[in-house]
Design goal:
This protein has about 220 residues and is an alpha+beta fold. It is about 25% helix and about 25% strand. It starts with a strand and ends with a helix.
């Protein structure tokens, strides 16, 4: 795996959630970008220097510090929708190539470069109204959900710098079978899969709490 581009957002108006702005318009940048843990959700901070989120209730913080999406999946969407998608167009910070990021395990760890940041796969991206409005595709949330190619959010376990062209190594994988794709399917269209998520203790605490609450309701 390697980084094709590193993408940082610029604020644009957000009429889709009636917020003042959104940072979904990610643009590739040249040169190294500093990456660090942003702290708890609620401040708008994310992992990459110069980037931020504006829907602070639902985005940002340590568990959603960095978002990665594969160029191979962007290419699939280009063919299906008959339109072009530049790197960063899905709001991803890292556009990758050479690895199926949706087959990554929750809790899997990636080392960028030789001494760059250490990242940990935390959870799948869940589509929202801003994403749908930004792409302007009819029925986008349903279509994105059906394809189950969400891409992962990552935590920053060790800070550092990264840049386009950097290699990325998978340095450890947990002893379970909960992939990004499986977690996404369980959280969206296939709740029968929810019990399997309990094996993935690297999921955000908020997500695990919701899983347990949903399972408890079904047992009543």
């Amino acid at each position: 795996m390697r980084l094709l581009s590193v993408n940082v957002g610029r604020p644009i108006p957000n009429p889709w959630k009636r917020l003042a702005a959104t940072g979904i318009d990610k643009q590739p940048v040249s040169g190294p970008v500093a990456v660090r843990s942003p702290g708890p959700k609620g401040t708008g901070a994310v992992g990459l220097a110069g980037d931020r989120v504006y829907d602070i209730k639902h985005h940002g913080g340590d568990d959603q510090a960095v978002y990665a999406y594969a160029r191979e999946d962007l290419d699939r969407w280009e063919k299906e929708l008959d339109r072009s998608f530049a790197n960063g167009c899905f709001g991803e910070n890292l556009t990758t190539t050479g690895y199926d990021v949706n087959a990554a395990l929750i809790g899997e760890r990636w080392r960028v470069g030789t001494e760059g940041p250490l990242l940990e796969v935390s959870c799948p991206r869940i589509p929202c109204a801003t994403f749908a409005g930004w792409l302007d595709e009819r029925g986008w949330i349903g279509r994105f959900t059906d394809r189950a190619l969400p891409g992962p959010y990552l935590r920053v376990l060790e800070p550092g710098e990264l840049a386009a062209g950097d290699p990325v190594r998978v340095v450890s994988r947990p002893d379970h079978d909960v992939t990004v794709e499986l977690a996404f399917r369980a959280m969206t269209a296939e709740p029968a899969l929810l019990p399997r998520l309990l094996a993935a203790d690297a999921l955000p605490a908020e997500d695990l709490r919701r899983v347990r609450e949903r399972l408890a309701r079904t047992r009543r």
